[in-house]
Amino acid sequence: MIKIGILGYGNLGRGVECAVRQNPDMEVVAVFTRRDPKDLQILTQSAQVCHVSDAENWKDKIDVMILCGGSATDLPVQTPEYAAMFNVVDSFDTHARIPEHFANVDAAAKCGGKVGIISVGWDPGMFSLNRMYANAILPEGKDYTFWGKGVSQGHSDAIRRVEGVKDGKQYTIPVESALEAVRSGKDPEFTTREKHTRECFVVLEEGADPQAVEQEIKNMPNYFADYDTTVHFISEEELKENHSEIPHGGFVLGSGRTGWEGEHHHLIEYRLKLDSNPEFTSSVIAAYARAAYRMAKEGQTGCKTVFDIAPAYLSAKTGEELRAELL
Amino acid sequence: MIKIGILGYGNLGRGVECAVRQNPDMEVVAVFTRRDPKDLQILTQSAQVCHVSDAENWKDKIDVMILCGGSATDLPVQTPEYAAMFNVVDSFDTHARIPEHFANVDAAAKCGGKVGIISVGWDPGMFSLNRMYANAILPEGKDYTFWGKGVSQGHSDAIRRVEGVKDGKQYTIPVESALEAVRSGKDPEFTTREKHTRECFVVLEEGADPQAVEQEIKNMPNYFADYDTTVHFISEEELKENHSEIPHGGFVLGSGRTGWEGEHHHLIEYRLKLDSNPEFTSSVIAAYARAAYRMAKEGQTGCKTVFDIAPAYLSAKTGEELRAELL
After folding, report:
1. Which residues pair with A168 in a beta bridge?
2. Are strands A228-233 and A196-204 parallel, antiparallel or unpaired?
3. In degrees rounded to 5, what are phi and psi of residue B252?
4. Do A275 and B265 make contact, defined as CB atoms within 8 angstroms?
């Protein structure tokens, strides 16, 4: 059994707990929290709840520590810190800071003789893999990524910071005609506005001015100003009833040409349609935890990404089984 | 530059030649044929055309030999034979015989200190990878493979063997309602007939009986009897005009559930839409030739499949570039 520790118990940590249960060769042995452990109820009967300050004492009792903190402030500190003591997996998703994060985790993991896998999930993660495979197969081609339909936590948070807004949810929606243009092999160039629209469901504070709120949302730089944005005002009950899930997904399209004169077009399309963004991310993480365990057993050390990991490491099946059943 | 040899110059060999030209770090140095080399015209000015019996003399001048023979009789013999002398890549696609082929190539490649990558292309190949990733991520799920719309060479050959048939082409077509049933998360079980239909375009010999030909095609065991098959009789000109390309493609769908009680559904969908089946297969092979070269440089030996190869080996980009641009 691969012994898993979970550090951080929000949506992602709980998702990892659920994912590990689906993998018969893994078990969660401990969940680490910054809260008082007495106040935390987890689902796994056999696992302990510990304070994060106890983690060090689990060095020999955990094969892979899964870091479920946020990318803004938690993971840049936590992943290098814990990679010195444990094999770790994180879902660091600030694309622009990945090179720096990689370097920090690589140094720490090599120092500790551990494996640290960063940026695991679906984007970065499965979408990255599909961008990379498509580019490697079709060098005379382009790749396109579309997100949604799904809930963007960052944009939902931005809505909730607007004065007069009590609660809100934002959906990112890919523009169907843009998808079709890529599929047809036209190799289009898009503006931000042409690829995605944004749809907001907003609960107002009592007495708030809907027109003012709508304008402030629609004109918010970075978040909404570059998009066609729709704002719907709904009741708190309706928000709870219809918008309490966290679905997401999207598309990676690779479009390219082959032949001596580029006479043939090819389309590679990878699509995810996810009822729960954190649970799917967690499921990818659980598979890569298996990889971390196996690579460490082989004596590998340092930081790895999905690009560096042979697919077979993710599967509970043996090489023989994979070749006979799935090749 | 990675020096590529091509053994066999049919549709696949010519496709490899085109694919290599798209990769700036590779060049075709020689094409080996069973024909008289004087009778073979290739596209690459700088490459030599040699008789297959000369291959041995190229041991030190070729980094990766790409074997472009057929799976029925060529590759089971050729791949082990050449894997003892060269790093090789093949597209062996007889799924049931892969374990045996793997064992033979593994022994030969280890003996020769070479890397042999087998069963590269899209199925087996990219489709296998997607089946494997989906199963590893969603252990409580199922995977489905649909082929088409595309030309099946085997079924087209079968049509042409029918008495009274001068020429013909067969298209395999996935049943849209079956795809939709999978996408909706119903986890359906399908009979053969429910997943694909077959459409045949047939040119009759003069005086042949269309009804007899149609009945013989539709009732042909293994090939057509288990499917809903449509037969169209067309002129030789029409066949040439509208059916001389070799498009193909298909879908790998992974459907599964997550959550403590399986409360959330997820769909992973990988689709290929290929104008030229052999050219796309060749493009995948070219990327894996790069992997064979690099793995051999690192001192690895033996038989590998797409499951065993870290994605980064396929790309001409460095690890730093991949992390900065595609992760």
Report:
1. A202
2. parallel
3. -115, 125
4. yes
* Cα B149 from chain centre: 15
- pLDDT category at A189 given cuts 50, 70, 90 is very high
pLDDT at A301: 98
Q: What is the pTM of this model?
A: 0.97
- Between chains, do A98 and B22 touch, taking CB under 8 Å as contact? no
User: Confidence class of residue A306 from pLDDT cuts 50, 70 and 90?
Assistant: very high
CB contacts, 8 Å: A183 with chain B: 273
> What does the pLDDT read at residue A161?
96
Q: Which of A275, A306, A315 sits opposite B135 (nearest CB)?
A: A315
| Tens digits of residue pLDDT in A217-243 | 999 999 999 999 999 999 999 999 999
CA B81 – CA A63 distance, rounded (Å): 43
How many angstroms away from the CA of A206 is the closest CA of chain B? 34
Query: What confidence score (pLDDT) does residue B285 get?
Result: 98
User: Nearest-CA residue of chain A relative to B101?
Assistant: A323
Q: Cα(B164)–Cα(A242) distance, rounded to whole angstroms?
A: 63
C-beta separation of B283 from A133 below 8 A? no
Q: Do A314 and B267 touch (CB under 8 A)?
A: no
Alpha-helical (H) ranges within chain B are 11-21, 74-83, 98-112, 126-137, 153-160, 176-183, 192-195, 210-218, 236-242, 277-297, 319-325
Q: Do A271 and B273 touch (CB under 8 A)?
A: no
